[in-house]
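Exercise (ungraded).
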Amino acid sequence: MFEFNYRSIGMFEPIFHSHTFYEVYYFHEGKCNYLIGDQIYNLSPGDLILMNGMTLHCPKVDPEIPYIRSIIHFDPAILRPYLELPQAVPVMRPFEQFKNYRLCLRGKEKEELEQILLVMLSHQQRGDKVGESRLLLAFVDMLHFIYDQCLQPLGEQREVPSDKEKTVQEIIALLEDVYMDDELSMELLHSKLHLSKSYLAKIFKDVTGVTLFEYVYRKRINEAKILFLLHPSLSVTEVSFRLGFKHLAHFSRLFKQQVKITPEGYKKELKKDRQLHKQLEGEGN
DNA sequence: AGGCACTGAGTTATCTGACG
DNA sequence: CGTCAGATAACTCAGTGCCT
């Protein structure tokens, strides 16, 4: 699995999502707050984000100003041939070490990365086998560049967040602890943070682009998918209770809303995948 | 028959915009 | 940063269908 999208325009994509592969996200221009897991990044041109796809992420975009970014999705398995060379540098370490990470590239470093992106684009545009292979090599080069940057002492990587963003960061930190709690409510957040319920709702949406409970439910449904994957024997009811839902009906409806398929249907799909996988393995031997 | 997953519809909580 | 009120979305209960 390898996908490269050069300088694509993001207009309206407040879609909170996760995926099973890794992502490299480079911000070219525009205005964007990026919410990844429990962190909010106020992106500036030259920012590069490394992401473990299982972490929920979503950009919060100003619809007036289109923003331009390049995105690379990849399955680390495709890099194996390059990583097993005797002199190989462990370029995947930054992805493994930090669940997600932002590099602020400026000046020479920014130019170098953009140069690599251009090279990748030219290889991609050839559209043949050689192009494909060189695209991958250029990407491996990019990973070396990233690895190198991660070794540099962090000259200030972080902008100073506004008070509002700090508060939202606090809300998110709190939610990280309690998002699976079945007693979670605005009342609880209000009592812990001493801010009015409507104000909490307002600044959260302002900064992240999603409502508070949308954030919570995205996290829960994401967790549900992981539970179904790792523990096929768990029933839908059991999973819904573990995630803090008081009613199966509620979980079922939200799951279908987000995943476009019922939880039971999702389990069945996973089962089919597993059987297919086994079958292919059997034929392989 | 009994358990489980899902849906319809009324109730309740959250969201959002206006205003102080 | 808070309050208020109307709009919207989530919660809950009751009921249905499917499977064993």
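Further reading is listed at the end of the chapter. For now, observe: The two ends of chain A are 24 Å apart (CA to CA). Residues 255 and 261 of chain A are 7 Å apart (CA to CA).
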